[in-house]
Amino acid sequence: MTINNDEPLTPAGRLFTQPATHQIINCALGLDRPIEYDAVRTVVSNSLMIKHPRFSSLLVTDNQGREFWRKIDIDIDRHIILHPHPFGEVNDNETAINDYLADLAVSTPLNTDKPLWEIHLLPAHKCLVLRVHHALGDGISLMSLMLTLCRKLDDPEQTPTIEPLISSSISKRRELRTIDKIMRFLKMIWFTLIYMFEFTMRVAWMKDERTVVGGGEGVEMWPRKLATAKFSIDDMRTVKNSVANATINDVLFGVISLGLSKYLDHRSPDSIEDGLQITGVVLVNLRPSPGLQDMKELMKKNAGSGWGNKFGIMLLPVYYHKNGSDPLQYLRRAKMMLDRKKLSLEAFLSYQIGYFVMKYIGAKYASLLNYKVVCNTSFTVSNIVGPREEFTIAGIPVTYIRTTSSSLSHGITMHMVSYAGKADMQILVAKDLIPDPENLAECFEDALLEMKEAVV
């Protein structure tokens, strides 16, 4: 039985509640010093976050199995969890926190008798972990909403902001000649047909060749390890500027391609053919990123509209090449591939297919479709833009933002977040497949440095 003010889950929200595609986002904030429970409670109580309907609603299911959000009065003390004792060596906070997050990724669901979010305090490791069910919203929206808990370091009255990403190609498109527009349209159709054919084959039967970094059905339940690769945004910009019209995402995929090649050279140098394709999955946000001011307006007007998840899937192949080739070739290949992907309608049509299956066939089958895509590919990657300026929470400076999520059937899941001139990529691995994620992280870091050296 439903109540009149119950609000149904979005199609993507329902996807993230299915067992095969259940997802929780775990966002760690490193702190300059330990934070106290009462300080966090005060900040949360006064924040926009708990006023948002998703953060003050239960997930309920009616007699027909349909899922809804039901508004309740929340007990904040049930959502803030203090862990007073260390989880490992106090002088090695990074390893202790990564081990803690790796355990959360596999074995720690959120209780459904309260709204689906928690804040874990780890004072011994100077860290705060925000856990949010993916059904509440996508990563970009949740990042913006989380920042309402924070204040700028150099202006404590102001909330941190995220600059919107505006494609530099938008203005150029308006200047294209008619013949160029026609050619662009024909390319869009051609690439869309190619990529949607491959997407369909991935759902049906086509798999990556077996490598030491691949996963498969059931791997999502295997124990995890987590390591952090650390990049300088200035270094990424230096590399980006070496190739005309390249982007930070182009650099990221070039780094992943070169880094995986270096790691495979280390793990299995004689068993892999040069040029082997290793396919990644990327979730593409299909709506404008809401700024903080937009969310304040949203709270005034209509509690639910415009929120949730709306994303498509893109399959992004990278290729193994033996060491010795020009590092910048990895960037050039990544840029060419991403330019074609962005020109196509792959992300939009994959969303439409998922929406159709969810609406007319059912959430179980939509979840199975996504699960099959993940099982037949090798890794997941995401990149979220964080604030450029430093900020505080409860008056304590935040030193880093790192994000990971529930484990998937991939052997590797990578989430990169930029903040204050740095970019940290969390590398979550199935430890029976990749027992040394620290070496993998080092391969990615070395890949960026080799690209930079090739530029200068």
The quaternary structure here is single chain
The CATH homologous superfamily of the largest domain: Nonribosomal peptide synthetase, condensation domain
CATH arch. level architecture of the largest domain: 2-Layer Sandwich
Structural class, from secondary structure content?
alpha+beta
Number of structural domains: 2
Q: State the name of the first-level CATH class of the largest domain.
A: Alpha Beta
Q: Rounded to an integer, what's the Rg over CA atoms?
A: 22 Å
Cα distance, first to last residue?
66 Å
Biggest sheet, spatial arrangement of strands: 5-6-7-2-14-13-8
List strands and helices in order, with pairings:
Elements: E1 7-8, H1 11-15, E2 24-31, H2 37-45, E3 57-61, E4 67-71, E5 80-82, H3 93-107, E6 117-122, E7 127-133, H4 139-146, E8 150-152, H5 169-173, H6 178-204, E9 224-232, H7 233-240, H8 248-267, E10 277-285, H9 292-301, E11 311-319, H10 327-343, H11 346-360, H12 363-375, E12 379-385, E13 391-393, E14 396-405, E15 412-419, E16 422-430, H13 437-455
Parallel strand pairs: 5-6, 10-12, 12-15
Antiparallel strand pairs: 1-4, 2-7, 2-14, 3-4, 6-7, 8-13, 9-16, 10-11, 13-14, 15-16
Helix pairs in contact: 6-12, 7-8, 7-13, 8-10, 8-13, 11-12
Task: Provide structural commentary.
With 456 residues, the chain is α+β, with helices and mostly antiparallel strands. The protein has two domains: 7-152, Chloramphenicol Acetyltransferase; 173-385 and 407-455, 2-Layer Sandwich (Chloramphenicol Acetyltransferase), CATH 3.30.559.30. Helix content is 38%, strand content 23%. It has 13 helices and 16 strands. Strands 5-6-7-2-14-13-8 form a seven-stranded mixed β-sheet, with helices on both faces. Strands 9-16-15-12-10-11 form a six-stranded mixed β-sheet, with helices on both faces. Helix 3 links the parallel strand 5 (80-82) and strand 6 (117-122). Helix 7 (233-240) crosses helix 13 and helix 8 (248-267) packs across helix 13 (437-455). It is globular, with a radius of gyration of 22 Å. The termini are far apart. The model is unreliable at 165-173 and 300-305 (pLDDT under 50).
